[in-house]
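Quick one from the shared queue. A colleague (R.T.) flagged Methylase as missing a structural entry in our internal table.

Convert sequence to structure tokens.
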Amino acid sequence: MTAKPFSQACENNKDSILQVLKTAFTEPATVWEIGSGTGQHACHFARHLPHLEWQPTDRAEHLPGIALWRDEAGLDNLRPALALDVTDAIWPCNGIDALFSANTLHIMGHAEVEVLFQKLRIHLSPVATACFYGPFNYQGRYTSDSNARFDEWLKQRDPRSGIKDYEWIADLAAAAGLTVTDDVEMPANNRTLVFRTG
């Protein structure tokens, strides 16, 4: 029997992120999660936000692990995960009213992040909310020594990755029709950025 994938970071941050999502996603909607990873977040948020339909997505190699979590959760509002790489020419969706992504922007290279926001300009509905969780730099500076060490580790693993500047992300979002409406301080030197269109 295949063991479910597990992320300790997801366990550590899921409740603090949930508190932000409760205020960001107040209306019924389908939330598209970019980079669902293990599937732990999808299960937790779908369970505690029953007014939402949760749509996990990730690269194809992660879908079996997400399916194990989803099958165990048995939630009617948690959809089967779909294969999605942000650089895919065609995304498996039409209009997106709500979007969530955790710990993805610092894993992607700058070119991939640019493509992501270009895709959001195409796929987000006229009135939509997007939430991104993770570490960010401000005015080119790390917010903590631990983030500086983490960024060094990321770049050693993949030179294209690394913690992105908040100002750069905000500019990309603005070009996609998104405005920052909240920047929430989170545990472990992370943030949740809330963007809205319309």
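The beta strands are 29-33, 52-58, 82-83, 96-102, 124-134, 136-137, 164-165, 179-186, 190-196.
The domain at 8-196 is CATH 3.40.50.150 (Rossmann fold).
Added to the table.
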